[in-house]
UniProtKB/TrEMBL annotation:
Gene3D superfamilies: Nucleotide-binding domain of ferredoxin-NADP reductase (FNR) module, Translation factors. InterPro entries: Cbr1-like_FAD-bd_dom (IPR008333), FAD-bd_FR_type (IPR017927), Flavoprot_Pyr_Nucl_cyt_Rdtase (IPR001709), FNR_nucleotide-bd (IPR039261), MRET (IPR050415), OxRdtase_FAD/NAD-bd (IPR001433), Riboflavin_synthase-like_b-brl (IPR017938). It comes from the Bacteria. This is Ferredoxin-NADP reductase. The lineage of its organism: Bacteria, Pseudomonadati, Pseudomonadota, Gammaproteobacteria, Lysobacterales.
Amino acid sequence: MLAPTVGHYTFVRDDGQPLDYIPGQFIQVHFQYGDGTATKRSYSLATIHDHALGPGEAVEIAVSYVPGGAATALFEGLDIGGTVDASGPFGRFCLMPADSNKRYLLIGTGTGVTPYRAMLPQLETLMRQRGVEVVLLFGSRTPTELLYGDEFRAFADKHSNFRFVPCFSRELPDNPHQDVRQGYVQQHLAEFAPDLAHDIAYLCGNPNMVDACFDTLKGFGLPVPQIRREKYVSSK
């Protein structure tokens, strides 16, 4: 359990083959409602893997539990060794090889932070190769809901070009780090002075946050191609 209502799951393919992917992509898990109707849910891959060493094997995802949710029942009922049917990877919410920006603004809430966890090895390479700066603004209600927070803080401590800025809307941690903020991520975006000449922004998570930050970034002059979005919608 990453948080009281979020589980971390690791899978491998049952045929023993790797499942290669680009950090930022997602898989779809297929299952059925109680009446037999087919449905599916999408989950961003959270796996940290250096793809320069070959394709990855383990697939890691974070699953938010929704009361009464059919997908929640599926995952909560999984034992170690259990299986799911899935397809993918899909999606283009990825760092692009042609990017020449000076800074990435990564903005997420809840499980919307999972693609950024998967991007850490790529970001480490980009910081080393062309001096890219990265700011990760992560919105959470409370410290117990800050998914992978210790990992992001450790990464920030190790890399001077990476800032981890948790924004807590309901409760601050004891003895907060100097980069901790109170409120919503969209309230603190202006602090980092988004700049069309230098920045590419990524938005992932709550649709209201994504829309609010999108409007803020456009207000700072960022063109739409420099704002990459992925919305997470909870459904039963």
